[in-house]
Amino acid sequence: MKRLVLITAALALLASCAPKPVQKVMARFVPERADDFAWENDFVAYRAYGQALETLKPGGMISPGFDVWVKNTTDLVVNQRYKDDLENGISYHKDHGNGKDCYKVGVTLGGGASSPLIGGKLCFPATNFRSSEVLESSPEKVVFVLSYPQWEAEGYKISLEKKITVCAGSHFCYAEDTYSFEGPCDSLVIAAGIVRHDVVCESAVEDGFAIWEKASDTGAEPEDSCIGLAVKLPGASFVGLSEDGTHSICTKAVKSGESLGYYFGSCWSKADIPNAEGWFDALADL
Q1: Contact 130/100 with Cβ under 8 angstroms?
Q2: Taking a C-beta distance cutoff of 8 angstroms, is the pair 104, 197 a contact?
Q3: CA distances from 107 to 3, 218, 273, 284 (A)
Q4: Are 66 and 113 contacting, i.e. CB atoms less than 8 angstroms apart?
Q5: d(C-alpha 96, C-alpha 152), whole Å
Q6: CATH assignment of 26-284?
Q7: Cα(73)–Cα(110) distance, rounded to whole angstroms?
Q8: DSSP code at position 74
Q9: CA torsion, points 102, 107, 109, 111, in degrees to nearest 10?
Q10: How far apart are CA 285 and CA 167, in angstroms?
Q11: Domain definitions of the chain by residue range
Q12: Would you call 188 helix, strand, or coil by DSSP?
């Protein structure tokens, strides 16, 4: 009996001394920065816009688009960037050695969001997301949901639950968008896409596309880098340009309550994928 107690104590001591797993993913609500929701893994970082931003400045900012934060380190950087910007006046729009925010979203799909496509028109939500919930969190994987309340568009009443899975070791995240709606038809065409800036080159694969473009938000400092962006929608009925030419999109029709699953991803030319060919290969291998 005494021997068993000693063995148990030794095992407990070894367990307490074992190194903790390295945290390679994160996702959180950021109330201190106008209700952002931010997420990242060891290769990519993003944020979506929340309620407070709608009235933060004259005219507000309402956009479903994902903002892309580029990075050239496998360390998690988002929390420190927010802290430095808000508490120390160190702007995350400038590169202080590990990347920055040099991507312009505007009122668009940004770097991989989705929206109903009705009569050839992208019909964005009327508000930013209103609630968020982290469903799963571990050192290697995080899953969360962003909820967009009901809005009206072209005779439809629509709401959205956006579930996003972020895993370590990938340039791609996985979105499962569930649109609930009522209106003239029992199905809606949904477009998952990327707003187009100064596109250098692009490539298409079955059910998806990749873009290589110049950094689009260059107001804070001169910029000589490029950003790779991509979307892959399995079973897409269309891959190409939106009617107004502002977005590259993949589309698919869904019924109310049916989940639409797709991948969206990004990279930075000053990190591990320095050229368009490497980025196009990454999409082809997905």
Answers
A1: no
A2: yes
A3: 68, 18, 28, 29
A4: yes
A5: 43
A6: 2.70.98
A7: 23
A8: S
A9: 0
A10: 16
A11: 26-284
A12: strand
Place of tokens 């290697």: 140
CB atoms within 10 A of CB 144: 21
- Give strand ranges (E) for the chain: 26-30, 36-40, 45-48, 67-71, 99-100, 111-118, 121-122, 131-137, 141-153, 156-167, 172-182, 187-195, 199-205, 208-214, 226-232, 238-241, 247-255, 259-268
The dihedral through the CA atoms of 48, 52, 56, 62 has a sign that is: positive
Residue written as tokens 């998690």? 76
286 residues of the chain, pLDDT tens digit each = 455 444 454 445 445 565 778 999 999 999 999 999 999 999 999 999 999 999 987 778 999 999 999 999 999 999 999 999 999 999 999 999 999 999 999 999 999 999 999 999 999 999 999 999 999 999 999 999 999 999 999 999 999 999 999 999 999 999 999 999 999 999 999 999 999 999 999 999 999 999 999 999 988 898 899 999 999 999 999 999 999 999 999 999 999 999 999 999 999 999 999 999 999 999 999 9
Alpha carbons within 13 angstroms on the beta-carbon side of residue 40 total 25
Q: What φ, ψ does residue 257 adopt, rounded to 5°?
A: 85, -5
